[in-house]
Amino acid sequence: MADVNRGNRPLSPHLSIYRPQLTSMTSILTRITGNAMLISALLIVWWFLAAASGPAYFDIVNGFLTSWFGDLIMFFSVLGLWYHTLAGVRHLIWDNAVMMDIETAEKLGWACIGGSVLLTIITVIAV
Question: Exposed, middle or buried, 85 (CB in 10 Å: 0-12/13-18/19+)?
Answer without folding.
Answer: middle
